[in-house]
Fold each of these.
Amino acid sequence: MKRILIIAGSVYVACYILFRIMNSEVWAEDGNKYVIYPQNPIAIYYAFRPLSYIDGFLTGMRSHLGLHQ
Protein backbone atom coordinates (compact mmCIF):
# COMPACT_ATOMS: atom_id res chain seq x y z
CA MET A 1 0.00 0.00 0.00
CA LYS A 2 2.80 2.40 0.90
CA ARG A 3 4.57 1.63 -2.36
CA ILE A 4 1.42 2.48 -4.36
CA LEU A 5 1.12 5.85 -2.62
CA ILE A 6 4.76 6.66 -3.31
CA ILE A 7 4.37 5.73 -6.99
CA ALA A 8 1.13 7.72 -7.32
CA GLY A 9 2.72 10.74 -5.64
CA SER A 10 5.76 10.51 -7.88
CA VAL A 11 3.60 10.33 -11.01
CA TYR A 12 1.56 13.35 -9.80
CA VAL A 13 4.72 15.44 -9.23
CA ALA A 14 6.21 14.33 -12.56
CA CYS A 15 3.01 15.30 -14.40
CA TYR A 16 3.06 18.73 -12.74
CA ILE A 17 6.70 19.28 -13.68
CA LEU A 18 5.97 18.33 -17.29
CA PHE A 19 2.90 20.61 -17.33
CA ARG A 20 4.97 23.44 -15.81
CA ILE A 21 7.67 23.10 -18.46
CA MET A 22 5.18 23.05 -21.32
CA ASN A 23 2.96 25.89 -20.06
CA SER A 24 5.26 28.52 -18.61
CA GLU A 25 5.79 31.99 -20.04
CA VAL A 26 7.35 35.28 -19.06
CA TRP A 27 4.78 38.05 -18.90
CA ALA A 28 6.09 41.24 -20.54
CA GLU A 29 4.24 43.51 -18.07
CA ASP A 30 6.23 42.48 -15.01
CA GLY A 31 8.97 40.18 -16.33
CA ASN A 32 7.98 37.26 -14.07
CA LYS A 33 7.54 33.63 -15.12
CA TYR A 34 4.05 32.20 -14.88
CA VAL A 35 2.52 28.77 -15.27
CA ILE A 36 -0.51 29.36 -17.50
CA TYR A 37 -3.48 27.10 -16.75
CA PRO A 38 -6.10 26.64 -19.47
CA GLN A 39 -9.60 27.86 -18.68
CA ASN A 40 -11.05 24.69 -20.18
CA PRO A 41 -10.85 22.08 -18.76
CA ILE A 42 -10.76 23.75 -15.35
CA ALA A 43 -9.99 20.35 -13.74
CA ILE A 44 -6.31 20.78 -14.69
CA TYR A 45 -6.20 23.95 -12.60
CA TYR A 46 -7.78 22.25 -9.59
CA ALA A 47 -5.61 19.14 -9.95
CA PHE A 48 -2.30 21.01 -9.97
CA ARG A 49 -3.18 23.97 -7.74
CA PRO A 50 -1.80 22.37 -4.53
CA LEU A 51 1.58 21.79 -6.17
CA SER A 52 1.61 25.29 -7.66
CA TYR A 53 1.44 26.75 -4.13
CA ILE A 54 4.48 24.70 -3.13
CA ASP A 55 6.24 25.56 -6.40
CA GLY A 56 5.56 29.26 -5.89
CA PHE A 57 6.91 29.14 -2.35
CA LEU A 58 10.08 27.25 -3.30
CA THR A 59 10.91 28.80 -6.68
CA GLY A 60 8.91 32.03 -6.93
CA MET A 61 7.01 30.73 -9.96
CA ARG A 62 3.63 32.39 -10.28
CA SER A 63 0.49 31.00 -11.87
CA HIS A 64 -2.37 32.40 -13.91
CA LEU A 65 -5.66 30.98 -15.09
CA GLY A 66 -6.06 31.74 -18.79
CA LEU A 67 -3.90 33.90 -20.99
CA HIS A 68 -2.61 37.29 -19.85
CA GLN A 69 -4.45 40.12 -21.54
Amino acid sequence: MKDLEAVSGDVIDVAIRLHRALGPGLLESVYEMLLASKLASIGYRVARQQLVDIEFENVRIDGAFRIDLLVDDCLLVEVKSVERLLPVHGKQLLTYLRLTKQPVGLLINFGGETLKEGLKRVVNDYRPSAPPRLRASA
Protein backbone atom coordinates (compact mmCIF):
# COMPACT_ATOMS: atom_id res chain seq x y z
CA MET A 1 0.00 0.00 0.00
CA LYS A 2 1.28 3.44 -0.92
CA ASP A 3 1.42 6.38 1.46
CA LEU A 4 -2.02 7.97 1.94
CA GLU A 5 -0.73 11.36 0.81
CA ALA A 6 0.65 9.84 -2.40
CA VAL A 7 -2.63 8.02 -3.07
CA SER A 8 -4.72 11.16 -2.61
CA GLY A 9 -2.28 13.16 -4.76
CA ASP A 10 -2.56 10.65 -7.58
CA VAL A 11 -6.37 10.60 -7.36
CA ILE A 12 -6.47 14.41 -7.52
CA ASP A 13 -4.05 14.45 -10.46
CA VAL A 14 -6.13 11.95 -12.44
CA ALA A 15 -9.38 13.77 -11.57
CA ILE A 16 -7.97 17.10 -12.78
CA ARG A 17 -6.80 15.56 -16.07
CA LEU A 18 -10.18 13.85 -16.51
CA HIS A 19 -12.10 17.07 -15.89
CA ARG A 20 -9.85 19.06 -18.23
CA ALA A 21 -10.33 16.50 -20.99
CA LEU A 22 -14.09 15.94 -20.67
CA GLY A 23 -15.38 19.01 -18.85
CA PRO A 24 -18.59 19.14 -16.80
CA GLY A 25 -21.94 17.69 -17.75
CA LEU A 26 -21.55 13.92 -17.72
CA LEU A 27 -23.23 11.58 -15.27
CA GLU A 28 -21.44 10.82 -12.00
CA SER A 29 -21.23 7.17 -13.01
CA VAL A 30 -19.19 8.06 -16.12
CA TYR A 31 -16.63 10.08 -14.15
CA GLU A 32 -16.53 7.34 -11.51
CA MET A 33 -15.87 4.59 -14.05
CA LEU A 34 -13.19 6.56 -15.86
CA LEU A 35 -11.46 7.63 -12.65
CA ALA A 36 -11.49 4.06 -11.34
CA SER A 37 -10.20 2.67 -14.62
CA LYS A 38 -7.34 5.15 -14.86
CA LEU A 39 -6.32 4.61 -11.22
CA ALA A 40 -6.33 0.85 -11.76
CA SER A 41 -4.20 1.26 -14.88
CA ILE A 42 -1.49 3.02 -12.85
CA GLY A 43 -1.42 0.27 -10.25
CA TYR A 44 -4.05 1.05 -7.62
CA ARG A 45 -6.59 -1.38 -6.24
CA VAL A 46 -9.94 0.31 -6.78
CA ALA A 47 -13.30 -0.93 -5.53
CA ARG A 48 -16.35 0.73 -7.10
CA GLN A 49 -19.72 0.99 -5.36
CA GLN A 50 -18.36 -0.82 -2.30
CA LEU A 51 -21.27 -1.92 -0.10
CA VAL A 52 -20.92 -1.07 3.59
CA ASP A 53 -22.93 -2.62 6.38
CA ILE A 54 -24.10 -0.74 9.47
CA GLU A 55 -24.80 -2.07 12.94
CA PHE A 56 -26.58 -0.05 15.61
CA GLU A 57 -27.80 -1.42 18.94
CA ASN A 58 -27.77 -5.02 17.69
CA VAL A 59 -29.58 -4.14 14.46
CA ARG A 60 -27.54 -4.85 11.36
CA ILE A 61 -28.31 -3.49 7.92
CA ASP A 62 -26.37 -5.15 5.14
CA GLY A 63 -25.39 -2.85 2.30
CA ALA A 64 -26.72 0.25 4.04
CA PHE A 65 -24.70 2.53 1.78
CA ARG A 66 -22.19 2.45 -1.04
CA ILE A 67 -18.80 4.08 -1.30
CA ASP A 68 -18.25 5.39 -4.82
CA LEU A 69 -14.55 4.47 -4.82
CA LEU A 70 -12.26 2.87 -2.26
CA VAL A 71 -8.66 3.27 -3.41
CA ASP A 72 -5.99 0.92 -2.02
CA ASP A 73 -8.23 0.17 0.99
CA CYS A 74 -7.30 3.54 2.50
CA LEU A 75 -8.95 6.43 0.63
CA LEU A 76 -12.67 6.98 0.13
CA VAL A 77 -13.66 8.98 -2.94
CA GLU A 78 -17.15 10.40 -3.31
CA VAL A 79 -17.86 11.49 -6.88
CA LYS A 80 -20.42 14.17 -7.69
CA SER A 81 -21.55 15.88 -10.88
CA VAL A 82 -23.60 18.80 -9.63
CA GLU A 83 -23.51 22.54 -10.30
CA ARG A 84 -21.95 23.19 -6.89
CA LEU A 85 -21.18 21.24 -3.76
CA LEU A 86 -23.44 21.70 -0.77
CA PRO A 87 -22.54 21.23 2.91
CA VAL A 88 -24.54 18.00 2.96
CA HIS A 89 -22.08 16.43 0.50
CA GLY A 90 -19.18 16.92 2.91
CA LYS A 91 -21.27 15.64 5.81
CA GLN A 92 -22.16 12.53 3.82
CA LEU A 93 -18.50 11.74 3.19
CA LEU A 94 -17.54 12.44 6.81
CA THR A 95 -20.24 10.02 7.97
CA TYR A 96 -18.92 7.38 5.57
CA LEU A 97 -15.40 7.92 6.96
CA ARG A 98 -16.63 7.55 10.53
CA LEU A 99 -18.64 4.42 9.81
CA THR A 100 -15.77 2.76 7.96
CA LYS A 101 -13.13 4.07 10.40
CA GLN A 102 -11.11 5.51 7.52
CA PRO A 103 -9.05 8.65 8.07
CA VAL A 104 -9.37 10.54 4.78
CA GLY A 105 -11.74 10.98 1.89
CA LEU A 106 -11.95 13.10 -1.21
CA LEU A 107 -15.13 14.74 -2.41
CA ILE A 108 -14.75 15.44 -6.12
CA ASN A 109 -17.37 17.38 -8.06
CA PHE A 110 -16.96 17.17 -11.82
CA GLY A 111 -20.00 19.40 -12.45
CA GLY A 112 -18.31 22.78 -12.06
CA GLU A 113 -16.48 24.91 -14.60
CA THR A 114 -13.16 23.91 -13.01
CA LEU A 115 -12.30 21.17 -10.56
CA LYS A 116 -10.67 23.62 -8.14
CA GLU A 117 -13.94 24.64 -6.47
CA GLY A 118 -15.22 21.08 -6.60
CA LEU A 119 -12.46 19.38 -4.67
CA LYS A 120 -12.68 18.87 -0.91
CA ARG A 121 -10.50 16.77 1.35
CA VAL A 122 -12.46 15.47 4.34
CA VAL A 123 -10.67 14.08 7.39
CA ASN A 124 -11.82 11.92 10.25
CA ASP A 125 -9.57 12.39 13.30
CA TYR A 126 -6.51 12.46 11.07
CA ARG A 127 -3.40 14.63 11.25
CA PRO A 128 -3.55 16.15 7.76
CA SER A 129 -0.67 17.65 5.86
CA ALA A 130 -2.77 19.12 3.05
CA PRO A 131 -3.30 22.88 2.81
CA PRO A 132 -6.22 24.18 4.93
CA ARG A 133 -8.29 25.11 1.87
CA LEU A 134 -8.55 21.40 1.01
CA ARG A 135 -9.49 20.23 4.50
CA ALA A 136 -12.74 19.77 6.38
CA SER A 137 -12.73 17.97 9.70
CA ALA A 138 -15.05 16.76 12.39
Amino acid sequence: MTSRRVFLIAAAAMALAGCASMPQKDPIQVTVAGMEGLPGEGMEIRMLVKLRVQNPNEAPINFSGIYLKFDVMDKTFASGVSSESGTVAGFGEAIVAVPVTISVLRMVRQVVGMLDGQPVEKISYEMSGKLNGGLFGTERFGAKGEFDLSKLETPPDAT
Protein backbone atom coordinates (compact mmCIF):
# COMPACT_ATOMS: atom_id res chain seq x y z
CA MET A 1 0.00 0.00 0.00
CA THR A 2 1.17 3.47 -0.74
CA SER A 3 1.68 5.91 2.09
CA ARG A 4 -1.05 8.12 0.66
CA ARG A 5 -3.59 5.28 0.79
CA VAL A 6 -2.58 4.42 4.38
CA PHE A 7 -2.98 8.08 5.35
CA LEU A 8 -6.47 8.26 3.78
CA ILE A 9 -7.61 5.08 5.53
CA ALA A 10 -6.27 6.35 8.88
CA ALA A 11 -7.94 9.74 8.40
CA ALA A 12 -11.27 8.10 7.55
CA ALA A 13 -11.03 5.83 10.62
CA MET A 14 -10.32 8.80 12.91
CA ALA A 15 -13.23 10.77 11.41
CA LEU A 16 -15.61 7.86 11.99
CA ALA A 17 -14.35 7.40 15.54
CA GLY A 18 -14.77 11.13 16.17
CA CYS A 19 -18.39 11.04 14.97
CA ALA A 20 -19.16 7.99 17.08
CA SER A 21 -17.77 9.62 20.22
CA MET A 22 -19.83 12.81 19.83
CA PRO A 23 -22.65 13.01 22.37
CA GLN A 24 -26.13 12.39 21.04
CA LYS A 25 -28.48 15.37 21.12
CA ASP A 26 -32.21 15.16 21.54
CA PRO A 27 -34.26 17.46 19.29
CA ILE A 28 -35.71 20.64 20.74
CA GLN A 29 -39.46 20.74 21.37
CA VAL A 30 -41.40 23.77 20.16
CA THR A 31 -45.08 24.52 20.85
CA VAL A 32 -47.29 27.55 20.30
CA ALA A 33 -47.68 29.31 23.65
CA GLY A 34 -49.83 32.20 22.45
CA MET A 35 -50.78 34.59 19.64
CA GLU A 36 -51.52 38.30 19.46
CA GLY A 37 -52.77 40.42 16.58
CA LEU A 38 -50.40 42.89 14.89
CA PRO A 39 -51.18 45.69 12.43
CA GLY A 40 -50.89 44.54 8.83
CA GLU A 41 -51.19 45.94 5.35
CA GLY A 42 -54.31 45.69 3.18
CA MET A 43 -53.99 42.10 1.88
CA GLU A 44 -52.40 40.43 4.90
CA ILE A 45 -53.05 39.45 8.47
CA ARG A 46 -50.16 39.75 10.93
CA MET A 47 -49.83 37.83 14.17
CA LEU A 48 -47.17 37.68 16.86
CA VAL A 49 -46.70 33.97 17.57
CA LYS A 50 -45.11 33.16 20.91
CA LEU A 51 -43.25 29.85 20.85
CA ARG A 52 -42.23 27.85 23.90
CA VAL A 53 -38.84 26.31 23.08
CA GLN A 54 -37.76 23.44 25.32
CA ASN A 55 -34.19 22.16 25.35
CA PRO A 56 -34.01 18.52 26.55
CA ASN A 57 -30.19 18.56 26.51
CA GLU A 58 -27.54 19.50 29.06
CA ALA A 59 -25.82 22.09 26.86
CA PRO A 60 -27.47 25.51 26.42
CA ILE A 61 -28.56 26.60 22.93
CA ASN A 62 -27.52 30.08 21.85
CA PHE A 63 -29.45 31.46 18.88
CA SER A 64 -29.70 34.62 16.81
CA GLY A 65 -32.68 34.45 14.50
CA ILE A 66 -35.65 32.20 13.98
CA TYR A 67 -37.77 31.11 11.01
CA LEU A 68 -41.31 29.72 11.33
CA LYS A 69 -43.74 28.27 8.78
CA PHE A 70 -47.29 26.93 9.17
CA ASP A 71 -48.83 24.63 6.56
CA VAL A 72 -52.54 23.81 6.57
CA MET A 73 -53.86 20.98 4.41
CA ASP A 74 -50.36 20.62 2.85
CA LYS A 75 -50.25 24.26 1.69
CA THR A 76 -48.28 27.15 3.18
CA PHE A 77 -50.59 29.22 5.34
CA ALA A 78 -48.29 31.57 7.29
CA SER A 79 -44.59 32.26 7.69
CA GLY A 80 -42.35 34.62 9.57
CA VAL A 81 -38.83 35.47 10.69
CA SER A 82 -37.34 37.28 13.65
CA SER A 83 -33.83 38.46 14.43
CA GLU A 84 -34.47 37.86 18.14
CA SER A 85 -31.50 36.31 19.90
CA GLY A 86 -31.10 34.56 23.20
CA THR A 87 -30.25 31.36 25.00
CA VAL A 88 -32.33 28.34 25.90
CA ALA A 89 -30.71 26.90 29.02
CA GLY A 90 -29.81 23.23 29.25
CA PHE A 91 -32.89 21.34 30.45
CA GLY A 92 -34.69 24.67 30.27
CA GLU A 93 -37.17 26.58 28.17
CA ALA A 94 -37.69 30.04 26.72
CA ILE A 95 -40.47 32.01 25.01
CA VAL A 96 -39.48 33.31 21.57
CA ALA A 97 -41.74 35.75 19.69
CA VAL A 98 -42.02 35.57 15.88
CA PRO A 99 -44.19 37.89 13.77
CA VAL A 100 -45.90 35.90 10.99
CA THR A 101 -47.77 37.00 7.91
CA ILE A 102 -50.90 35.34 6.55
CA SER A 103 -51.80 36.34 3.01
CA VAL A 104 -55.53 36.98 2.61
CA LEU A 105 -55.33 35.51 -0.90
CA ARG A 106 -53.70 32.37 0.50
CA MET A 107 -56.41 32.13 3.14
CA VAL A 108 -59.19 32.46 0.54
CA ARG A 109 -57.53 29.78 -1.58
CA GLN A 110 -57.45 27.47 1.47
CA VAL A 111 -61.15 28.00 2.19
CA VAL A 112 -62.17 27.56 -1.46
CA GLY A 113 -60.10 24.36 -1.59
CA MET A 114 -62.04 22.99 1.37
CA LEU A 115 -65.42 23.85 -0.17
CA ASP A 116 -65.31 21.24 -2.93
CA GLY A 117 -68.67 19.77 -1.94
CA GLN A 118 -67.21 17.19 0.45
CA PRO A 119 -67.67 17.59 4.21
CA VAL A 120 -64.42 18.49 6.00
CA GLU A 121 -63.99 16.46 9.16
CA LYS A 122 -60.25 16.88 9.75
CA ILE A 123 -57.86 19.70 9.01
CA SER A 124 -54.19 18.73 9.00
CA TYR A 125 -51.47 21.19 9.97
CA GLU A 126 -47.70 21.25 10.18
CA MET A 127 -45.42 23.74 11.90
CA SER A 128 -41.73 23.80 10.99
CA GLY A 129 -38.82 26.13 11.43
CA LYS A 130 -35.34 26.65 12.71
CA LEU A 131 -33.36 28.47 15.37
CA ASN A 132 -30.18 29.88 13.85
CA GLY A 133 -27.23 28.92 16.01
CA GLY A 134 -24.54 30.41 13.74
CA LEU A 135 -21.27 28.51 14.10
CA PHE A 136 -22.88 26.18 16.64
CA GLY A 137 -25.36 24.78 14.14
CA THR A 138 -28.98 25.29 13.32
CA GLU A 139 -31.66 23.68 15.47
CA ARG A 140 -34.56 22.57 13.26
CA PHE A 141 -37.97 21.79 14.70
CA GLY A 142 -41.37 20.62 13.57
CA ALA A 143 -44.73 19.41 14.73
CA LYS A 144 -47.79 18.14 12.93
CA GLY A 145 -51.29 17.11 13.77
CA GLU A 146 -54.96 17.33 12.93
CA PHE A 147 -57.93 19.27 14.13
CA ASP A 148 -60.86 16.86 14.25
CA LEU A 149 -63.87 19.03 13.39
CA SER A 150 -66.32 16.16 13.84
CA LYS A 151 -65.62 16.16 17.59
CA LEU A 152 -66.44 19.83 18.05
CA GLU A 153 -69.65 20.17 19.99
CA THR A 154 -72.33 22.66 19.10
CA PRO A 155 -73.03 24.82 22.14
CA PRO A 156 -76.49 24.29 23.62
CA ASP A 157 -79.13 26.94 22.94
CA ALA A 158 -79.19 29.66 25.57
CA THR A 159 -83.01 29.68 25.60
